[in-house]
Amino acid sequence: MKGSIVLFGPPGAGKGTQAEIIVELTGKPQVSTGEMLRSAVSKRTELGLEAKEYMESGRLVPDQVIIGLIEDRLNEPDAINGVLFDGFPRTIPQAEALSEIAEVSAVISIEVPDEDIVDRIVGRRMDPETGEIYHVSFRPPPPDVKGRLVQRKDDNEDTVRMRLAAYHKQTKPLGDWYNNLGILETVDGTGSIQEVGESVAKAVKLH
Length: 207
Ligand code: AP5
Fold this sequence. Notes:
The chain is of the alpha/beta class and 207 residues long. It has a single domain (4-28, 81-205), classed as P-loop containing nucleotide triphosphate hydrolases (Rossmann fold), CATH 3.40.50. It has helices at 15-26, 33-42, 46-56, 63-74, 92-101, 114-122, 157-171, 173-180, 193-205, and strands at residues 4-8, 30-32, 84-86, 104-111, 124-126, 133-135, 184-188. The radius of gyration is 16 Å and the shape is globular.
């Protein structure tokens, strides 16, 4: 399998929001470990029951669990020409395991300072029917979908602080790891959703 792209960045940086444009440009399927885990939690599978406690307390799910999930996903036929990873890898052991099973051609890092993250996360709302991501101020939902929007259980201020701590300790060092491989592209994530989208598109076209 060849040519996967990794979307990298802190919680709430805009990875899920910007994934759409990369999927459109490359045709690669989006593989979001967060979405896969949330689906397992809502179906109350064995994996979901194990992951739930970690997710709701803002900690990372153990590496072996995540690596097994990704190995299975990459065996699906649509992964043959590479995928867009959103939220994976998040630790050096995950990145090492990935390097054994797939080629990563670009890592796009969306950079947003911690002080912006809490507002983004606390105001996020999801449409369970379409998967669309909104924000009460920065991307207000249309009136006809407002009634069905949901808020993620881990989108509260206390859990966000835990998620940020996990990001700085366990995930951020991966940026240097990929930079040393010469495949890291950094994007300023502080502009509007559209401005960040344009920078992301430019970074994708470099590869
Ligand atoms: P996951 O679902 O991956 O969450 P995350 O990394 O914390 O990322 P988010 O989904 O919160 O944010 P995002 O960057 O996608 O931002 P979004 O586009 O929605 O993981 C959840 C949990 O699962 C983890 O805590 C962990 O427990 C577990 N897990 C998952 N993967 C794992 C792994 N590999 N290893 C171990 N554990 C794992 O945007 C956020 C909000 O901001 C939205 O409301 C959006 O509208 C708004 N917004 C976006 N861009 C902008 C902008 N430019 N300006 C203003 N607002 C913006």
